[in-house]
Design a protein that fits this description.
This protein is of the alpha+beta class. 39% of the residues lie in helices and 20% in strands.
């Protein structure tokens, strides 16, 4: 079957290439801000008692920008046309997400804040030790042999974070159809104390990437606040903080990738909670720890990795009381404090670790699966089990 895969690798550009990459990123940012301003101007003009003006799309804005290149923006001829064109398409997607309620209103991009990035299409080749980008040329890679040299590359996204440049290539590859495996269902309970606990006793420790570096983050942030904004020393302090942010993000991603791959490869039937991170973070006392654990990214990776490795993924109802239910007799407690790390049943006297008990309850959901995603991508929604208490075992 044909699947879409993204590979990300760090670049090792020289000074000339670094300048070219930065110019392309600034060009994409400029096009995005210019397109946003044009859309806002059209919206204000439509408020006046004049004939209605059609809101320009990404294609309309790109045609208008090509006309302005000859008189105002001649410097764009030295760069690839893909950077501003793809930025305007991103602007259209941002407005679509806003009108459909998935995101906030698009904001202007700042040169000082945010991640510098741009997207390229066209002739892009990945070799063993370098990658070929339009208008930039052959850029060395810090990882040799990681990017696949065979396959059609649809586009490449180049981004900068903490002074380091990365390239993500999105390509379509052919993979063998996964074979559905039979076996006992395994429940996976996500939490803060442990990142994940399975019903067979496997424990994945939470790296607590942000919590371990919180004092250093506060110290570097204080140094930034004590320097004049825009000065050379202020820029150096900002770069130090961004490098630390990149380190924290890499530690978190590494732990989640290893955990999800291990579970998807070794467990035939996996039951996981359908958590809603946007609702969980409303409790300010746990918001930072919940965001640090990144439950949404964990579930997202489980979804597509189960399709790759032939595992069956079952999503339990968000209100299924996995933490408060006894895995031995089925009794549901009225309440359970977060400080209780051991589950004790008052009916049958059953005693077990809190997270392991929740994972076993999730494994029992497979008999009446709430939502199944098999290796062929088909979704099945049988009758949902009853439950009125939140099942998040934090």
């Amino acid at each position: 079957m044909k699947v879409y895969i993204t590979y990300k690798s760090e670049l090792d550009p020289n000074n000339v290439q670094r300048t070219a990459l930065l110019r392309h990123a600034n060009c994409a940012r400029f096009a995005y801000n210019w397109g946003l301003q044009r859309k806002q101007e059209v919206w204000w003009m439509n408020q006046l008692p004049v004939p209605h003006i059609k809101t320009p799309t990404a294609i309309d804005l790109h045609r208008e920008l090509n006309v302005l290149k000859r008189s105002k923006f001649g410097w764009m001829y030295d760069l690839s046309k893909c950077a501003p064109q793809e930025a305007l398409r991103d602007l259209d997607s941002a407005f679509k997400n806003f009108f459909e309620g998935r995101a906030k209103y698009p904001r202007f991009k700042s040169r000082r804040s945010g991640v510098a990035s741009f997207r390229m299409t066209g002739i892009i080749r990945a070799e063993t030790s370098h990658i070929v980008l339009p208008r930039v040329g052959h850029v060395r890679l810090k990882e040799r042999g990681y990017l696949p040299t065979q396959g059609h590359i649809l586009f490449a996204t180049v981004s900068e974070h903490g002074g380091r440049w990365f390239a993500s290539i999105h390509m379509q590859v052919e993979r063998n159809d996964p074979t559905l495996r039979a076996g006992e269902p395994v429940g996976v309970d996500l939490g803060i104390h442990h990142l994940a606990v399975t019903s067979d006793g496997t424990v994945v420790e939470n790296p607590r990437a942000l919590a371990r570096k919180q004092r250093k983050v506060a110290r570097l942030s204080k140094k930034i606040s004590r320097k004049k904004k825009g000065s050379a020393n202020w820029e150096k302090a900002v770069k130090r903080l961004r490098r630390l942010d990149l380190r924290i993000a890499c530690v978190r991603k590494d732990a989640i990738n290893k955990a999800t791959t291990m579970i998807a490869r070794t467990k035939p039937i996996i039951v996981i909670e359908s958590l809603r991170p946007q609702n969980l973070v409303r409790e300010h006392k746990l918001a930072r720890s919940l965001l640090d654990a990144s439950f949404g990214e964990f579930i997202r990776q489980m979804e597509y990795k189960c399709l790759w490795y032939g595992s069956t993924l079952i999503k339990a109802d968000p209100f299924y009381p996995s933490t408060k239910r006894c895995s031995s007799c089925g009794n549901v407690k009225a309440g359970m404090a977060r400080s209780e790390r051991t589950y004790s049943c008052q009916v049958c006297g059953f005693v077990m670790d809190r997270d392991l008990n929740a994972a076993r309850n999730l494994a029992s959901v497979a008999a009446s699966s709430v939502e199944t995603v098999n290796a062929c991508g088909e979704c099945v929604r049988p009758e949902e089990p009853s439950g009125c208490e939140s099942g998040s075992g934090l």
